[in-house]
Amino acid sequence: MLQGFFFMRIPTDIEMGVGSDSERSKMSNVMNKTGRSMGVWIRGKFQKIKRPSNPQEGINTSPLMDEPQSLFVTDSSTAIQTFEQLYDAEYLFEASLVLIDRENQLLGKKPEEEAQQMEKITADRKVLEKKLLRTIQRSLSLSFEQVQDKAAVSALTMVLTSAVKAIYQEEEQDLLRKQERRGTLSNWKTLHDSTLHSLVEDRMDNPSVPIADLTGQSSIQLDIHGMGRQLKEDLLIVVNVLKSCYPLDANICQFYARLYHQSLSARLRKIVDYVLDDKDCTFILRWVNEYYPGILKNPELANEIDTTALGKLLPDEFLDNLEKQYLATQQSELSTCMDRVLEEEKRKWIEGEQPAMEDGSFTSPLAYDIIQFINGMVKAAETVTGSQRQAQKITCQLPDLLQRFKAFQEDIIKQNKLYSKAYVKAILGCVEQFKDILQRKGHLFPDKVQKNCLAVLTDMKQSGHTFLLSSVHKNLKPQYQKLGTNDWLKKTTLFEKLLNDMEHELQDLEGMTQSCHQEVISRFHEEVTREYVMRLLRGEVKLKDRGHQQKAFITVTKNAESLHDLFNKLGSKKDWLKEILTNIAEVLKLQDIPALQIQIVSMGHAYPDLSERHVSALLKLKTNVSREDRHRVKATLSDARDGSNEGVERLYFFSKVVVK
Q: Do residues 196 and 263 make contact, with C-beta atoms less than 8 angstroms apart?
């Protein structure tokens, strides 16, 4: 970054053409009237320099903080003495002081003499004004490459600093004129601001910064590129060069930034008034939300420009129309991409292609491809629109896509072809992938889309599990029918055979990812346990006395252990199912009514869907429990419902156990 301070030595009285006592008195009047003596910018402030007591000795000309050599020479033979000489030498600040001195000398003179001399002063001030404005117009005359040329920078900043000093000095003189109600106001500060406004407008109309090869871009995109590059390079010159020519309180970097911001904004408004094609629409949104903020985040600019104060580059009414057009296009493109992927899967099914195997599992690229589309397009839309909420809208067609995916799965199940199970296993992998992104990256989707999609995926998973397990249950039905019978109670080998047959049948569930396999095994574990309880509560076995009931307790407890061990080995995570059987076994063992009541209350707390019908069926197995005692035990179940259940894990199981 170019940094520096530009200092100007104050010319001696002789150099200013006021070497005599009377002339020194005149210059003193200038300083007294303006409230400021001639000086230099030091870190943006105009510092007074004390004159020596003997004017013939001159002032200290040693450098201040290594300032450049003085523009003035001390040789009296070449000293500048008149306004014209100061003007020609571009000592604009000093020339303005001469005019102020001449104006101040008119005080007390006769009206005719004052009018005559004031006419000359006004003419000279007009001439100086034009030169000041020409100097201001050259503020951005350096190319970006010339900023590295110290001589070029020095030549510009010295004369610009002098011009700026003159403008700010004249602004103070205008205040005095207002207070004393004399003379005509110069309004140089206003002219300075309007000149910079015109300068910025001209540079944005005619960018001089060369544009890189942008083949294939529209005229609109090329125009915006040109304005953007011009804006960036000019603001860097302002920060690195022009800032040092102004006092700190001028906040010149912010002033220029506001001019460029307003200019670019006005041009973009005109552009978006026309019907834009999708590429130009996207390009403008990216400029507003990505490229332009990126320019202002440049470290050199960010420290000098308050971007918040600049406001939006385009008002909401313009942005809303652009965003609607862009999002509609992106939504359509995403929907087309998703449809294409689904149609490809349907083609494979119709043509009898078996799903691909990967690491021992049937797989489908459908979910992966669609997730990549969603992830990439939503992130891009967030960058383009600058809004996560807006970007999410392009996924609104995902629930419809999943509904059609669900219909495809149902058709596969209905047809039940040779590869139906393989396809369903692959689809379950897709369901898992979709569910993962919906839950782990929920920010990509609106809440309603996320909720609807998860509901569809849950249905698909249940349907897939039911299809895969239906044949397993069918093959195991002969073994199920022996549960809860007298033979089951007498022959331990019956349950052992059921376990062996289950393990064999479950081999048919291989070919899924580990997590999918674990889920279907867990569901099968719950369904087998429910089948076991349902068969037991049918009441085919009668437990007439303590001995039979103790036998049933031991059998159910061992069955619970064996079932748990098998499914634990297979990967089921539903360990709590074991507790259901052991709780039932405990009811079968207990003889005291109070003890039974306590056990039922405990079960009621743990399983809120345990009904009186279930309790009654369980107690009927114990034929030595009277009808009256059964009613007493069942009545305790309502107590369990009324009591506090805070901190107790509540599990639902019995609602699907049908009891006649």
A: no
What residues pair up with 41 in beta bridges, in sequence order? 46
Q: 531, 480 in Cβ contact below 8 A?
A: yes
Q: What is the pLDDT of residue 113?
A: 75
264 and 161 together in one domain: no
**Within-domain flag for 193:** no
CB 469 within 8 A of CB 495: no
575 is written with which tokens? 């360990």
29/166 same-domain check: yes
**Residue that is last in its domain, among 311, 340, 372:** 311
DSSP secondary structure of 60-91: --SPSSSPPPPSS---GGG---SHHHHHHTT-
Cβ–Cβ < 8 Å for 522, 573: yes
* Residue 68 CB coordination number (10 Å): 16
Q: What is the pTM of this model?
A: 0.76
* Region at 126 (left for phi over 0; alpha for psi -120 to 50; beta for the rest): alpha
Residue in this structure with the two tokens 């060369």, named with its chain if needed: 210
> What pLDDT band is residue 75 in, cutting at 50, 70 and 90?
very low
Same structural domain, 93 and 158: yes
- Return the structure tokens found at 91: 């000592």
Residue 69 token pair:
């050599």
Query: Which amino acid, one-letter code, is at 321?
Result: N
pLDDT tens by residue, 220-266: 999 999 999 999 999 999 999 999 999 999 999 999 999 999 999 99
CATH of the domain at 639: 1.10.357.70
Q: How far apart are the first and last CA of the chain?
A: 88
Does residue 574 sit within a domain? yes
Cα Rg of the chain (Å, integer)? 45
Give just the sign of the alpha carbon dihedral 309, 310, 316, 317: positive
Question: In DSSP terms, which residues pair with 40 in a beta bridge?
Answer: 47
Indicate the number of domains in the chain: 4
Is 253 in the same domain as 117?
Answer: no
**Who's near 659: CB < 8 A, 6+ residues apart?**
534, 537, 611, 613, 614, 617
Q: Is residue 368 part of a domain?
A: yes
Q: Are residues 356 and 272 in the same domain?
A: no
- 5, part of any domain: no
Q: In this structure, what token pair is assigned to residue 137?
A: 């117009």
In this structure, the number of other CB atoms found within 10 A of the CB of residue 586 comes to 17
| Helix, coil or strand: residue 335 | helix
CB 386 within 8 A of CB 323: no
| 145 to 152, 209, 236: CA distances (angstroms) | 10, 11, 12
* DSSP H or E segment with residue 42: strand 39-42
Tokens at 243, concatenated? 């800032």
Instruction: Among 288, 311, 334, give the residue marking a domain's end.
Output: 311
Q: Are residues 288 and 423 in the same domain?
A: no
215/157 same-domain check: no
What is the SS3 assignment for 441? coil
562 with 527, same domain?
Answer: yes
Range of the domain at 485: 481-656
